[in-house]
Amino acid sequence: MTDFVTTEVQGGIGYLTLNRPQALNALSLEMIRAMTRALQAWANAPEVVAVVVAGAGGKAFCAGGDIRYFHKASHEGDPLLDQFFVEEYALNFLIHRYAKPYIALMDGVVMGGGMGISQGARLRIVTDRTKMAMPETNIGLFPDVGGGWFLARTPGSIGEYLGLTGTVIHAADALYAGLADAYLPGKVLAEVASDLRARTFDHGQAVLDHIATFTQQHREACVPAQSQLAGLSAQIDRIFGGDTMVDILAAISDAPGDWAAHTAAMLRSRSPLMLHVSLEQIRRARTMSLDDELRMELDMMHYVFRKGDGVEGIRALAIDKDHRPRWQDARIDEVSRDKVLSFFDSPWRAEDHPLAGLGK
């Protein structure tokens, strides 16, 4: 337990609760370490048959990493900045490979790092309050925490669309995109959480089966057919399936309608460099294992705060809040291919990589 993560075992379930509501449960290194310790301890504990992770405060599951810390640590040359991502990505991998059912209650804001600690869950439950996004390009980063891997596995070119624009989606879209498994109204989710605590479970499947008695009742309340993404899928595939970032921007700029105009404006506001890098990441991730993709992300993140736009993007959004980032490349068509590819050159030898042990 830390001040911002509470752990509890009751009735066979290990409960992990992010308890930093004033920061929308944004992750600090201490929170990542607390979650990792709990999951490692519970992995072989016979009294724990499943894990439930949730966010406190009623507004957010988890809004991502603590970007103000990233900015401060980068300016100060704090070595713990690199360590943050090493341990966060290791936690993401642990969750994806966890042997016991890990159940994520994705109520409220679920963005960035919040996706990293939920997408590997056996059961991902969204609600009428879910606001999901991978908004990293807005602050000069890229969709990390395994984002390249899970975005690359959404239908068609939806992964490119969500990763490049950072568009916020809701429950039906999440279900359609394969980024969630089940829906519950927020009020019912609270009832389910209370009901789980009143029972005792002997095995993990019993927990999943019990939750299913609730989710099945509300299956028709939020279905993929209601998804805006589903209605836009043909346009998204045609435009975001373009060969290059320049092609994608040209196609969306020429497309008619409000959605295209809004999307083009979003892309023009993002870091041109990191749009190119993010597109390359997602395309590469389609043929990568999760452990290799996370190692690639750590390579990329090593450069983001050294020669990328991360510091400037966070400054403009969260520090000075002028919302006028001075990206190092002014236009998408000015970014050189060599500059993009340099983000994928690992600064470590394979045997020395901080995440060398993943998947071994």
UniProtKB/TrEMBL annotation:
E.C. designation(s): 4.2.1.149
Annotated GO MF terms: 3-hydroxyisobutyryl-CoA hydrolase activity; lyase activity
Keywords attached to this entry: Hydrolase, Lyase
Gene3D superfamilies reported for this sequence: 2-enoyl-CoA Hydratase, Chain A, domain 1
InterPro entries: ClpP/crotonase-like_dom_sf, ECH_dom, HIBYL-CoA-H
Domain annotation Enoyl-CoA hydratase/isomerase: ranges: 14-344
UniProt KW Cell wall biogenesis/degradation keyword: no
Gene Ontology terms: biological process: L-valine catabolic process
Keyword Translocase: no
PANTHER family noted in UniProt: 3-HYDROXYISOBUTYRYL-COA HYDROLASE, 3-HYDROXYISOBUTYRYL-COA HYDROLASE-RELATED
Name by which UniProt lists this protein: Carnitinyl-CoA dehydratase
Organism per entry: Cupriavidus yeoncheonensis
